[in-house]
């Protein structure tokens, strides 16, 4: 448990003179739930995008399992054990729930398109294994009975869980979740809480960006706080919630603009 799985070392990026993220470092261990919080514009999404290979960092390193993965493309990161979900749902609404879960297995696949077209035995075997794995994932996120429904007919909370199921298809060591509870009601948020806790309990590290402060305080083992691109605090939820620098950062933003705590 003590080994660091993800190590963020002095990450930074500048957009047209603005230091969107400046010298941010922290670590995540297997099975740990780490949340990144901060007022609007603090740099959370930009940090996430650098860690997950969408932006090339201007400075610093991303180490995954002791290997330097800075700037690797998302599909290569997925092969090395990092998956992510996005703030805006990336679900194929007109496909079934099962087909969406199966899509997660094809993210990094090297199988030949020609082999698939010719329906060769290898392709058939891969497809059968993906379907079987996808059904197991749907059961894990409580969607097994919805497998054959069109994804577009699901509730918002169920779609969020489907997205997490798809991200789990490649058996990641670390899962990056960008606002998993955004747009969810209290019951749906609680279901997502339980799912995240269950995934972490299975040994997968979780890195979370979330605006729902009550959820963050409930489920995080460790919280990293950003303000104006810089890390201003990190620690356990109880300590973070009474940290004067954190309180000042949130009070400094427009009233009601940040957490719903
Ligand atoms: N592609 C970009 N080009 C220029 N500036 C950007 C870009 N992306 C983000 N920024 C700026 O960088 C800063 C950090 O933005 P970022 O979206 O990372 O913050 P955030 O903490 O995720 O905010 P929110 O909570 O509102 O999602 C902001 O000042 C933003 O305007």
UniProtKB/TrEMBL annotation:
GO biological process, one term: L-alanine transport
Domain of life: Bacteria
CDD domains: ABC_Mj1267_LivG_branched
Alphabetical UniProt keywords: ATP-binding, Nucleotide-binding, Plasmid, Transport
Presence of the UniProt keyword Transport in the record: yes
One GO term describing the cellular component: plasma membrane
SUPFAM superfamilies per record: P-loop containing nucleoside triphosphate hydrolases
Domain ABC transporter: 6-253
UniProt keyword Nucleotide-binding present: yes
GO molecular function: ATP binding; ATP hydrolysis activity; L-isoleucine transmembrane transporter activity; L-phenylalanine transmembrane transporter activity; L-valine transmembrane transporter activity
InterPro entries assigned: AAA+_ATPase, ABC_AA/LPS_Transport, ABC_transporter-like_ATP-bd, BCA_ABC_TP_C, P-loop_NTPase
Protein's name according to its UniProt entry: High-affinity branched-chain amino acid ABC transporter ATP-binding protein LivG
Organism: Paracoccus zhejiangensis
Lineage: Bacteria, Pseudomonadati, Pseudomonadota, Alphaproteobacteria, Rhodobacterales
